Amino acid sequence: MSSSSSSEAIDIAPMIAETTRQPRFGIVGFYVVTVLFNICLSAQLLTVGVAYFENPSWWQAHVWLVRGYSGLSLILLVWVYRMTWPRRIRILTVSMSVLLGLQFLTIHWHPPFLPVPLAIVHPLLGFSVFLVSSTLVHRVWRIVSPRPTADFLGENDD
User: Fold this and answer.
1) How many Cβ atoms are within 10 Å of 109's Cβ, its own excluded?
2) DSSP assignments along 96-142, one per residue
3) pLDDT value at position 114?
4) Most buried residue among 2, 43, 52, 69 by CB atoms closer than 10 A?
5) How many CB atoms lie under 10 A from the CB of residue 141?
6) In angstroms, rounded to a whole number, what is the distance separating the alpha carbons of residues 17 and 7?
């Protein structure tokens, strides 16, 4: 009886219990793909900076990178629903895919009825993708990290 009351008191416990029953390679693999996505996104941001401020030929690298790694978000989207993940991780994964879709939309669609081009929000969406991706990496790391469950739940905090 005391174990059920302690798990009810800490609402994160069911999420950890559900996630730890999954194959470890599935959890670690998901983490590796989130890190890879984040590294590619960081490289893309650096190339756009170099292209804008130093050498315009870097735009090709910027475009190549986004076309190359954006598929990782779709892999993560499928993966997050093939396994049991906490709601927050699912929301972040879906958000990342939606934001990338909006990025493609804002750079390629030029509706004539708008007074300003949609492309003006492209950099803001890029920042949002980076924020969501980094948050996802940190959230998944909290599950992957080798800390004992008691430490993760804060029961051993001094």
Assistant:
1) 11
2) HHHHHHHHHHHHH---TTSSS-GGGGHHHHHHHHHHHHHHHHHHHHH
3) 87
4) 69
5) 12
6) 10
